[in-house]
Design goal:
Elements: E1 8-11, H1 15-20, E2 27-28, E3 48-52, H2 57-66, E4 71-76, H3 77-80, H4 99-103, H5 105-108, E5 120-124, H6 130-137, E6 141-146, H7 149-161, E7 167-170, H8 177-187, E8 191-195, H9 200-209, E9 215-219, H10 242-246, E10 251-259, E11 265-272
Helix pairs in contact: 8-9
């Protein structure tokens, strides 16, 4: 992850050039001729140090400026050739997953009876799949569920770029409740991840149909968020202490509030189903 005060080194040259030599800490991003993966860039308040082919520099800077990124330094391919560089694929990433994954991953670890399989997580409302990729990196088998086909296409490209296996599933959990219940019964997931998505009837489904010892991890907006921006619909806003009350008969492992820079609060909630 990137410190907000230091520029992110973003290398937008063709991937073969990046593999042949890049600055230490540089992140490769296929800006000019790749798919729409803007979700893999950092927050817009992080300045960028751009590594780019000389003939593509102006276009790249204009495109980043259009997306409200501030390019504070440019190093061309020819200038890089004179510097000490790293080679091969880098493991640096410019994007963040939700704070449950970035700061509380130990609470999400699950044990299962089979030693031959990794624990399974259902990432509900996965969007473009940053959390799905991180979950796979943590050692989960991941079924990533969303009702937007385009988002799942971006997820598959990201998973390929990060060399992880994620199974995408096009499904509207809000309007396909029976299918969601059937999936949970069939797959017996060890973890439900639900980030920035809320449909209250699903909480009751988790309580009833998840197997004992499974966990839910929920990171979504609290009612105070409406004072600072969206969402404003109370259907999409948790009440304070709502999750703790709903899962009072589970073991609550984490119940905190995460506040965004713009003031909007979100839940940081992890609970485990225990034997009655």
């Amino acid at each position: 992850m990137q410190d907000i005060d230091s520029p992110l080194i973003l290398d937008v040259r063709p991937h073969n050039h990046y593999l042949s030599g890049h600055l230490p800490g540089a992140v490769h991003f296929n800006l000019l001729d790749g798919p729409d993966l803007w979700h893999e860039l950092p927050p817009k308040n992080i300045p960028l140090h751009l590594c780019v082919l000389k003939e593509q520099a102006e276009t790249a800077i204009q495109l980043l400026n259009q997306h409200r990124y501030d390019v504070v330094k440019v190093t061309t391919h020819e200038e890089l050739a004179k510097l000490e560089l790293n080679t091969g694929a880098g493991s640096n990433r410019s994007w963040r997953g939700n704070p449950l994954l970035e700061h509380h991953a130990d609470l999400l670890k699950c044990t299962i009876d089979s030693e031959l399989e990794k624990p399974l997580v259902l990432d509900i409302g996965c969007g473009s799949g940053r959390d799905s990729v991180l979950l796979a990196q943590l050692g989960f088998r991941v079924i990533a569920i969303d009702n937007q086909a385009k988002a799942l296409e971006r997820l598959q490209i990201s998973a390929q770029n990060w060399n992880v296996a994620v199974t995408p599933k096009l499904m509207d959990c809000k309007n396909q409740m029976d299918d969601t219940i059937e999936l949970i019964i069939q797959q017996q997931p060890a973890l439900i991840m639900q980030s920035r998505f809320l449909h209250r009837p699903l909480l009751d489904v988790y309580k009833e149909y998840l197997p004992v010892n499974s966990k839910v991890a929920i990171h979504t907006f609290l009612e105070g968020a409406a004072d600072f921006g969206s969402p404003k619909n109370p259907d999409f806003l948790l009440k304070n202490n709502e999750l703790a009350e709903r899962f009072a008969d589970w073991s609550v492992l984490l119940d905190q509030v995460h506040t965004l820079d713009d003031g909007r609060p979100l839940s940081l909630f992890v609970a485990q189903k225990v034997t009655l």
